[in-house]
Amino acid sequence: MADATTFTNATQILEPFRGIKRVTIEEYFTSGHRTCQGCESALVMKLMVKAAGPRTIVLGSTGCMYVANTTYYTTPWVVPWMHTQLGSSGSAALGTAAGLKSLMRKGKMKAEPINVIAFCGDGGGADMGIGAISATLTHKEYNSLILLYDNESYANTDIQLSGLTPYGAHTTFSPPGKVHRLIHRRWKKNMAGMMAAGHPECRYVATVCASYAVEMMNKVRRALTIGGPTFIHSLDPCPKGWDYDPMLSHEMGELAIETGLFPLYEVEDGVVKYYGKTKALVDGRPRKPVREYLLKQGRFAHFTEEDLAHFQSKVDEMWQQWEIPAVVPFRRVDATKAALDVK
Amino acid sequence: MAVTTAAPAASDEKELLISGSEAVAEALALADIDVVTAYPIRPYDTVMQAIAKKIANGQLVAEYIVAEGEHSQFEIVKHASTVGARVFCGSSGVGWAYAMECLVVTPPLRVPMLALVGNRALDDPGAFGVEHNDALFVRDLGWMLCWIDSSQEALDTTLIGYRVAEDRRVFLPLALSADGAFLTHSQALTLVPPREKVDRFLPRYDRGDLLLHPDNPITVAPQANEDWVIEIRRQNDEAMKRAYGVIEEAYADFRRVFGRGPENPWFEEYMTDDAEVILVGMGTISLPIKVGIRNMRARGKKVGLVRLRWFRPFPTERLVAALSGARAIGVIDRDYSFGSPFASGVVANEVRAAMYNAERRPPLLSFISGLGGREVTLEDVDKAADMCFAAAASGKSDTKTHWLGVRE
Hints:
heterodimer, A: Rossmann fold, eight-stranded mixed β-sheet, 13 helices, B: alpha/beta, Rossmann fold, 17 strands
């Protein structure tokens, strides 16, 4: 048995695409699905596997990208694909990678680096499956990528709130009513930051948005190249769940970034690196007000000025008070001390 | 701790003093499993401790993963199996219940996983002792279920289990049940065959055209809905039916290669040839029943035992043939099924159903005993047999279910 502390698995070396014209033309997620018009998650699937290439196995946990993508007799997947249970993306990645590694080590299968990607939605990943994902991110001897496509609700089962649904959003489990305007009053989990901070040996965590397709693909390629378990959180505008015109998905993703609500960054070997328009925000470009983003979506149509102000204040807090802005919600020691001194 | 003793003459097998769990671990090393996942719960976890030692000592090369819960434990090996790995897993009691979602999906995915269930009472209240309700959760779902009662049977049936489960005609998972403490922790002298012999008996796992690999880009388990689900259920049903023949073949081959093992895979018959009363049970309850039978026979009472090994697939015809000749049948369940017909245990009602079309239907009595690991005493066995003799005399089944050894 190879010593686990020194054993490393070879990975495919996937260099970043240097611009849109250098992206490979082959598609591994093609026709044969029935996702909604304007579905960004379907685009994420297409870009994810385009970035990974043909020597890839994809595992998909229950959710939109299972039910809407793979209806028996059709499949959009050109690469091998398998369903896994709602909370099992972590276990699916780990089991598949462990099976391949064992067989290759023992000479029962031709040795070659095969990408293993497991995807999950926000419900399957940030709610039910968070324990299994967390466990997988500690198994550094198995190469896998877990990609969380976050459309901010259980969108396949009629739009119910998840741990990643934004504060106050109207879902079928949080309808605004005559007595209670806001049923959902929990702030969205900081999923990527939590995965990066909580798993010191996970070498790569990134956030992505398909509005920036080439960068998104390059993060996937980096995650697969670096080795060990990796995690990517993708924010996916959802016309059905967010209630906006399907033609605006791309713009909705841009606004989420420009308002600072969803930061784009990667954490490689513990080093945080902002990229894209988020980097401009860090460098001092003003954030757009969140109302420009929220009021374009029907799920926030019931918001009052007070709600908008609260939402804005929470986003300001992310950028002004977090130890690493929009990434790690700890406060700086001096700020904490100042707060204590006031008391 | 395994203790090596002198091997018996003219045998190429080692003889070790090992527990049921350790015997399974010996078989797993011989079967060269590829991926194993562990999570602690008594009493099955002794098998994982034995495997961990084997891996640490280089006696087994496998990916050994300690999961963060039983749900992941079973999902990880399920997925490893789909890329061609021979896998092992297991649990007990509420741990098995925690994995339930994964247990459900394993048979329709045609994953030939082997799991050890160290049978344990379900919470609440907490109890380490044996009950069979945990393994019986999956009796309707496409899992093969087998109960063993000795370390030797544990080792042998593990090898046979992989052979059956991984047969392409079957491709179904197998839960091997070992009574908690009574078998998982009890040591007995056990013959351990050499690897060469095992290799002659057990071929490599070949996933064939179901292999998930870039060279075979298939889509597994798409949403099928009402268009196809009933056909998929029917395929599982056919696989389970084919398992009968595959099990018969595997035991015959096992006897040919190893020179031991039962002629009848399905159940052990103990002093049934001339028995007027036949008791039926599963697992280590066989020990007090066998002693009880010997004592009763010394007093002139002709009692026998049928110890069921295979519960799924259920050996209907063969069991009916074995039981039809008795004057009365007494089924002793180490499980319960509240609200079931006659409030009987699961095995009693299965035997009743199997006997319904028999030409000769002796009276059948149902007993529940030994729950939570309580000892089944010789008095309990005597009492059950006496009631069966009374039913034989009257020729009538009594529809009450009798709880043995319970304070009332």
